[in-house]
Amino acid sequence: MIAAEKCSASERDRTELKVRIAVNFDDLAAFRTQWDEATEALGGTVYMTFDWTRTWWEHYGKGKALRLYIFESGDEVVGIVPVYLESIGIWPLRMKIARFLGANIPPKVFDPPVHRDFAKAVFEKLVRSLLEGESCDLLSFGPVSSENPSWRQLLEASRKWSSSACTSRHVKGVHSVFYLPDSMEEFMIPFGKSRTKYRGRYELRPIKKVHTDVLTDVVSEPSRLEAEFERFSVQHARQWQAEGKPGHFGDWPDGRTYNLALVKTQGALGRMRYTRIRVGERVLASEYVFAFGGCYYWELPARETGNEFDDFRLGTTAALTMIGTAIKEGIKRVEAGMGHYPYKLELGAIEHGTVVFHILKRGLPSRARKWACDIIKYSIACGYRKMWFRRIQPRLPRSFRGHQWRSFLRFDY
Fold first, then answer.
1. What is the DSSP string of 158-205?
2. Are residues 155 and 291 in the same domain?
3. Mind listing the pLDDT tens digit for each residue in 70-128?
């Protein structure tokens, strides 16, 4: 049974809040369906579902320890918080850190499903287990959205540990969200005088002036998804190579094989969508999307480039096509990812801040370890990421380029 949000806290006995901790996914195989039902009922994201977290762990879990926290009150699931433990830094100042499963490769908004009436009690038990039971130096929770009200309870819960730990918040930028009405006509209303222009792009008028066989479609059948991913990944890489960049799959370690695994597992569950614009059999543009809990998770775009296509503004047109598809499906929200993108704001997206919470164990040993790791972290940020990866590497021959180093990404806490 899943905890219903409509039930009041007074109807529950918080003293009976139970927690079970699994150290591998096999121990929770029978709990898989209930995990996903609880994630949806409690407002969690697709990134917190059973198969998504398991897929991430299979690709990026080497050298880490898994802790899957399931919180229950009676026969109700009131919280699921999957985390991993890792030691980073240089001996003798190695720091033991706990993070959400999936954190930092690649960056997402990780709002774990926690019932708001139980949030404070859940976080108190979680912090105690990680600081005392697991002897962690630092808990790094995030990025989480400022839109999620349950995280205010984390701050309240952390006050209980003020004598043994200190809490700080670190802004990690923004993420964009589209809130969708019941029809595309309603969606167009805020565009005002530009409504005709955007409606024309949604209706593909600029392309239809040149091509007569234009259509849109959606690929969601499991039998077609793997082949479509292969086509999409090539087009996405070609789009970014035209700008001298590797694209998403080249930016992140194991990016292509990890996403292919996601396509297979999530596609089998009916959560995959490719919304496409075609001329005949040629795909001009498409959007790579996951669907879960009445929400689209817009992952990546891909489109043709060059003078032949630039006048079509395929990026905007493909985004509008994806939004139209979502509205027809009854979707009310599109999570459009982290980062500031002006074209998303032009299309009506709303930006929300994202924050990482740090809970550091008090005492000189933990402070010294974090101080040493912070030096490495900021050296990587300035020397490797800003100078080498973003500025120097793109100018080198392609054979000298590569994805971000896993060992350096471990310090993105």
1. HHTTTTTEEEEEEEEEEEEEEEP-SSHHHHHGGGGGGHHHHHHHHTTH
2. no
3. 999 998 999 999 999 999 999 899 999 999 999 888 889 988 899 988 998 999 999 99
Encode pLDDT of 27-40 as tens digits.
999 999 999 999 99
Is 0.85 surpassed by the pTM of this model?
Answer: yes
φ/ψ of residue 227, rounded to 5: -65, -40
Q: In this structure, what CATH number is given to the domain that contains residue 160? A: 3.40.630.30
In this structure, are 89 and 233 located in the same domain?
no
Q: Are residues 17 and 137 in the same domain?
A: yes
Each residue's pLDDT tens digit, 118-165: 998 999 999 999 999 999 999 999 899 988 876 677 777 767 766 678
CA dist 372 and 93 (Å) reads: 7
Q: Are residues 61 and 98 in the same domain?
A: yes
Query: How far, in Å, are 62, 357, 360 from residue 168 at the CA level?
Result: 29, 6, 8
Structural domain includes residue 345: no
Residue 2 has pLDDT above 50, yes or no: no
H helices of 183-287, in order, are 184-188, 195-202, 205-208, 222-241, 248-251, 255-268
The mean pLDDT value for 377-398 works out to: 74
- 378 and 287 part of one domain: no
Domain range for residue 250?
181-331
- Return d(Cα 72, Cα 51) in angstroms, integer: 21
Nearest-10 crossing angle of helices 119-128, 151-159: 50
| In a shared domain, residues 185 and 231 | yes
Same structural domain, 170 and 190: no
